[in-house]
Amino acid sequence: MLRLSTIRSIFSLDTLDSRLTVNSPRSSCPPKNPTTPSLAGAARNGESSRSQKLRKESSPSKWGTPEFWLYIIGVGIAVILMFKTGYDISKESHPNYPKFEHLLSPGWIPGRKVDNSDQQYSNFRDNIPILAAVLSGHFLLRRGFNVLFSRLFPTPPHNSSYRPSHNINRRKYFDILFAVIFLTALHSLSIIKILVILTANWLISFFHPSSIFVPILTWGFSIGVLFANEYFEGYHFRLILPWLIAGEGAGVGYAMDHFLSGGLLPRWEISFNITVLRLISYNMDHYWAAKRLEEADDQKKKLLDPSNISERDRIDTPAAMEDYGFFNYLAYVLYSPLYLAGPIITFNDFAHQQRYPQPTTSPTLVIKYGLRLLSSILTMELVLHYLYVVAISKTGHTHDSWSSDTPFQLSMIGYFNLHIIWLKLLIPWRFFRLWALVDHVDPPENMLRCMSNNYSALAFWRSWHRSFNRWIVRYIYIPFGGASRPIANMVIVFTFVALWHDLSFKLLTWGWLVVLFVIPELVCRKVFSKRRFEGRETAYRYLSGLGAVGNVLMMMGANLVGFAIGVEGVRDLIRGVLGSWEGFGFVALACTALFMAAQIMFEVREGEKRAGIDLRC
């Protein structure tokens, strides 16, 4: 039982991100809303009133009923057939195998090759040993620096008011020094270009941080940088120097471009997109803090224990004005564990955690999170060794590598491509979050649910790249009016998201498709509200299941367009699936399986409510 309980704790929500269980008993995270005395008495085991309300509103468990045994058996059979079909089209004996074999590489599982043809994940996978060494080196150097710093500047006692300032100073100097070394290794002398952009952005909010021109200039500058980085391909020194010094210096510029071979990642502008989000976060947090100070806002929360407050308070409460300085800014924007891929953390939250280490970064929780990451990597390895769907999709349009495949086989190419996209993003995000947790910084978890455990387009985007979603809500969605104008805001949001990912028509098409597919869900929620079905909960659940089937199909189509095989590839897939009566029969069976899966998803969420948890996704 001990082993089973340990495994369950590794895959628990509290291990994934203690924010998710913040209102429930046994959470590792401080409550969002500390329980206050009421006529009903104190909350049980520290459980919040919000958690108690969820438990009260939840429905009785349906697990074990004949209806749900039918769903479990039906979905179980479907899953087995799905994996078998993906494996069958990846066999050497399959007639299309020679058309994509050239994209496969030798694998470490005996008798199997590995589909390492996705360049984005291949770069991460091939460098896992180096990244692990960097994480370990960062950990050891931080410990050594802390000892040296404490000898030069003795650490104040825990109850001293100077302790938080000592913490943030000690951390920021190391963060900047390590970042300079780290970025030089990554981008060579292009670090100079990065520092120039960072300095220009910092100056926007330096002179008059409460001016209305700060947000205007910040957004204009940040969007301009995204376009300029793409257009000028990272500003080569061999082109910049002659322009600066009257036609001279092309040779020196060429040498600077190739110093250290341009670094491990010469195209620094590709990974800089995520840095732009931190530039905006710093300036906007600085602007709002200055506005509060200028307006003599007396609503600043009195934090009795600032070392143990909720994430919401860390984000909403402005940092001390002295924290909005250049060194703290550099430490935040260039923070090495989160520099390449995030997760995104706001400046206010980051500055607070520099002053007050969080209890959620305890060694036990970090080790369990690391084991969970390891299980994700091993899962990806099994998928890449046995399901060659990425190679098939890459050659489907050019080499016709899905010719003669059945509708079921074609659909599995698309389905498992989406799962690999999910895993290839989840694994790097969790690695870099693990690195931050080891360093006592707790950013949000980016992926809350398995890709197949989503039936709502709106909820899906709350759980996919969650830290980016929360950044969008704080800095775009709410400032533009929030829920008062949802459709217009979604057009703005997904246009920005698409252009932020890549300045391409394919991503722009994806962004607008997402908005188009969300509209039916918004309309149905208004027309078929839960209150109208009071007393007819079973009918409402079945009706919601039908809507969920449509949502899943539309979400799969949009994401295949944006992140996998593009518009032409999706068109070919649809033509292949619906090009025969067999295809229509398959679609009917697939929709039946999706309906049963949706019912299981509903009950999973009801089970979370019975535990006092609402992930809102």
From TrEMBL:
Bilayer disposition of the protein: Multi-pass membrane protein
GO terms under cellular component: endoplasmic reticulum; membrane
Membrane-spanning parts: 68-87, 173-200, 206-227, 239-256, 329-348, 369-388, 408-427, 475-501, 507-528, 540-563, 583-602
Keywords (A to Z) from UniProt: Membrane, Transmembrane, Transmembrane helix
MF-aspect GO terms: O-acyltransferase activity
Region annotation (Disordered) ranges: 22-62
Subcellular location(s) per record: Membrane
Origin superkingdom: Eukaryota
PANTHER family on file: ACYLTRANSFERASE (PTHR13285), PROTEIN-CYSTEINE N-PALMITOYLTRANSFERASE RASP (PTHR13285:SF18)
Name recorded for this polypeptide: MBOAT-domain-containing protein
Species this chain originates from: Tuber magnatum
